[in-house]
Amino acid sequence: MAWVSATYLLESRADEVHKRAAALALEQSVEMPLEAVADPKIRDSIVARVASIEALDSQRHRVTLQLATATTGEDVTQLTNMLFGNCSLQDDVALEDVAFPPELLERFGGPRHGISGLRALAQAPERALTCTALKPQGSSPQALAQLCETFGRAGIDVIKDDHGIADQAYAPFAERARACQAAAERASQSTGRPVIYAPSLVGSPRRIFEQAERAREWGIRAVLLAPMLIGLGTFAEFVTTFPDFIVLAHPALGGATRISPVWLFGKFFRLLGADATIYPNYGGRFAYSADVCRALAHAAREPWDSIRPAMPVPAGGMPVERVPEMLEFYGRDVMLLIGGSLLAAGDRLAERSRSFARAVVQDV
Amino acid sequence: MAWVSATYLLESRADEVHKRAAALALEQSVEMPLEAVADPKIRDSIVARVASIEALDSQRHRVTLQLATATTGEDVTQLTNMLFGNCSLQDDVALEDVAFPPELLERFGGPRHGISGLRALAQAPERALTCTALKPQGSSPQALAQLCETFGRAGIDVIKDDHGIADQAYAPFAERARACQAAAERASQSTGRPVIYAPSLVGSPRRIFEQAERAREWGIRAVLLAPMLIGLGTFAEFVTTFPDFIVLAHPALGGATRISPVWLFGKFFRLLGADATIYPNYGGRFAYSADVCRALAHAAREPWDSIRPAMPVPAGGMPVERVPEMLEFYGRDVMLLIGGSLLAAGDRLAERSRSFARAVVQDV
Questions:
Q1: CB B176, CB B164: distance < 8 Å
Q2: Whole-prediction pTM value?
Q3: In this complex, which of A29, A89, A138 lies closest to B280 when CB atoms are compared?
Q4: Which chain A residues are closer than 8 Å to B296 by Cβ?
Q5: ipTM over 0.95
Q6: In this complex, which of A78, A169, A255 lies closest to B203 when CB atoms are compared?
Q7: B342 φ, ψ (degrees, to nearest 5)
Q8: Are A36 and B344 in contact (CB under 8 A)?
Q9: Chain A residues near residue B230 by CB distance under 8 angstroms
Q10: What does the pLDDT look like over A288-342, one tens digit per residue?
């Protein structure tokens, strides 16, 4: 029998934690009193087990449960259900980490391209990569395409849609994505280097899959998806259905949960096939600490069975001036995402974009 | 121009709240500094606006933003992105409530059946309804079907799969759902009253839609779906694609967010088409207060434009003894869900199930 080891932080006093952990194990498996489970096979092979309890302080404990792999049906949605379905409704529980048995690693498979695939597409085998965002939403397809060409000519590797750009009346997906891809191709021809445009795909599964079909026809090689927003099952199905796309994962809606961002954005998105994972860098508009960011990047890149490394993409209000510090902090297996700070340059947008690209390219 | 009014709770001091609210408005719309937004049309019609700020105490404020409807693309995934995509990553923000413009109400449409449709199917025009769950997972299809028949013969209206039951090797969806539906039909023929079986559909969108197609062929009329788990866009697409099913919404993964459960389970799930909405009742295994539960039931049932009322389904460790109290609290437009407490009766399962059904039916 195989087990998934799920580690939770429980707010519970020492004299109550054993009872609380046992209740959590029932909640996340059979969801009924143990004495009402008559079948010994179910008690042995289905009911979750408390594997360990570690005191962190007088009020908090780290509890590891073993969840039967059989209950997941080897399906990502059901796995998430078993990991954090019902207990998400209990305020005293947070999901910290998960160790998967080999069959689940194989089932989900991780990035189809990962860091090396992204580097190959960008023709940048060693240096850090650069990324920026097309914004603001409300702009016309022509305005976004023009911006895309400017960024591309400035030497930025990956140009993604802002995650708020979807299929809106003022910039319908088809018109916008085709125009931006054409702009990226013009910039590429002009500079003689790859310019990768990644449209944001947002919507119901059918809509996302239709958009991906069209994007592929237009020569688009990378896309931006927010797994928590579109659903982890939709995300996993996308990666399986369109293995040719480089997939950038966006954290939208993901921080809302009491799930460790290190695990969710660094490890779980990677397992499900994110080639690159965007997350809020420390010292920006979001509250993640440097320690969290370091651990997240480590989770995305560290050796992990047969799972390819995913590219960490720190973002969220980073100015160009922080490039040297970020390269020092993350090393070279990183893609720096700077958006608003380039746009804030106004007339000097092209110049500041070139500074960004140069600062990364010349840092060797 | 139409606007969506989104109300947030902000942890912020009075001397900082105006700046913080303005930053939130930018985060949830253009995601860049206002001074970098050159186009006056975008400033006027796309950038979110701070509509009001109300002090709750020295550290907390209620802030209402107006988000441009145009940015949602009238798509549920993108709407969620605009409401709580990026700011979910900021610890000081919680989403409390949303007021939608008429075009979005019309676009999403609410329950296809609602309370009246569920009552018609159950042939119970006035009294409260009863619901229970097939569990534990790990049981064979035959064991679950037998349990389903026992519950049905005892007079329970709706028998749903436990939300942990998916498409697992020990009880594959097809075998299980067909066997349980046949058992419900036998119980119905024997008692002369409807017995409604609702299988849990879990998985990637493709898998869920395939399961629904088959369920429909087998005469199944109701299903259980967890919108946050499968993705709100998948949920909305399901309701549109299969308008004939009565849809019971399960809160799994939903409480993880800093989103008001009153709004999410009571109002948003209803808007997206949940005919009935399951949530943790007060005094059970979960921490919701009586006030939250009252407000949630009210949100599900109150008159709301052309949107049908959804049936509130309080659950989560309720014993049969609490039936009179719950009926007193919720009135008759409610479906009481009792699972584990029936199963804990062991050999007296049928008897306790009859007590449950009788307690509700005879209460008039």
A1: no
A2: 0.92
A3: A89
A4: none
A5: no
A6: A78
A7: -70, -45
A8: yes
A9: 77, 231, 233
A10: 899 999 999 999 999 998 999 999 999 998 999 999 999 999 999 999 999 989 9
